[in-house]
User: Fold this.
Amino acid sequence: MSLTPGTLGQSPQILWIGCADSRCPETTILGLKPGEIFCHRNIANILVNTDVNSLSVIQYAVQYLKVKHIIICGHTMCGGIAAALDNKRLGLIDTWLMPLRALRQENLPLLSSLDEFERGLKMVELNVRQGVKQLLANPVVIDGMHERGLQVHGLIYDVRTGELRELDIEEEEEVVKSRVVAFKTV
Assistant:
């Protein structure tokens, strides 16, 4: 079986990386139809550069489907975020949540200054920003951005109101240049 776009008959313009939460269906959130979004979902939309599953999805979407946009979307009231902010032992899921707990540690003074709701919302935002950072350092994504204008977006979905908010992820030119020097492969 060939994994070329023509064989599968799909040509989505968007790669959606989101949470596995059943309240966050990507096509409904964006008002699109089945087939218009290629997606990867996991608990708390965590992206790490060692997850072969998400890396394979990203490579296929960018290199073969030639998506024009990658969206990483977190959401309010996320159980994975709540678990990472708690100190209960959860078993295997603790391993998956390690990147979130590291993010919590890095931002402990800020998070400790917030009430429970704001702390959860800030962790969602920090996690999306971390995912954007991972995407922007991915050589396949770097190529897609430079060769054909691929765009990366960080969003937060409010499950109570249905509001979708885009994060400002603009970077200074020097940051972009240094990342390309460090991560672009040929």
User: Anything to note?
Assistant: The beta strands are 14-19, 37-42, 69-75, 151-157, 164-166.
